[in-house]
Model the fold of this input.
Amino acid sequence: MVLNVGIIGAGRIGKIHVDNLRCIPQVRVKSVSDIAVGHLQSWAKEKQIEVLTTNYEDILNDKEIHAVFICSPTNTHATIIKEAASSGKNIFCEKPVSFSLEETKEALEAVEKAGVKLQVGFNRRFDPNFRKVRQLVQEGKIGNPHILRITSRDPEPPNVNYIKSSGGLFMDMTIHDFDMARYIIDSEVIEVFANGAILVDPAIGEAGDIDTAIITLKFANGALGIIENSRRAAYGYDQRLEVFGDKGAAQADNNRVNTVELSTAEHVSKEKPLYFFLERYAQAYVDEVKEFVTAILENQPIICSGVDGIQAERIAKAAKESLETGVPVKLEQIGQSTAIY
Done:
């Protein structure tokens, strides 16, 4: 079987998915929709896209299309998910599903009712190093997890206009770390305590957000988590994690251009971390779409489901509430639990 795919939104991430999907023999990227297709004509021809349209409904109404990738702005995700599910399409949606837990819940209910598959684009789950750490935890190599530490720092902040529409640091950036925390520890977060500051750019504060944060988590299995974020690390894209347990610890370090370390009488040096997230997670982006395709063609479970999406959103909401109130927030206070699904 050939899986016919439509891409909704041809910005940076949509184009990455097109490139990665075109490398999978069982996939045909038939259609792409974007509100501004004028500048996409030569690109679409180069990528052998058969249909280029400004209306995503053309993709949903195409009976040949088996799956859609939703790469449009976040405020459109929930609506398109519901429409795509109603059209019988399997769905890959970039994170977050929405800024509203109620809208996300409605989208997930539509998916369940239609009996289609939904994968949320938490690509870091597919990073080979992070997956190895999870495997070691699952195999009991470190014993019972006690402490998880995640460091996530961007090389530079996005522009202020983006920040105004991104949902804020917790929903835009830390949400990846919230998902990673659940993924690595394999236990639900039950409490969140967040501290934040504006240390990178005053304009971010003027836009109503923070650019630096430390978040502590409590898990249902008793483990504790620490997430630290910054919108700017002068030396590159800093992505590390460590999980510590009663039998040992496992760490995943930054990816670099090479692993050579030079030692001389004057200094010890090695390469900086890769600078941009597209470089750092290149393989993860490839693997997440491969596994989505496999899940459809072989009717296998989705690795990062809609439930994972809404749980990460709930943690982000709890973190924002904690930041505003200055006290820890129980997850049971934030929206519905996964028990409803």
Remarks:
- The two ends are 31 Å apart (CA to CA).
- The chain has two domains: 3-116, 124-276+306-340.
- Confidence is low (pLDDT under 50) at residues 337-341.
- The first helix runs from residue 12 to 21.
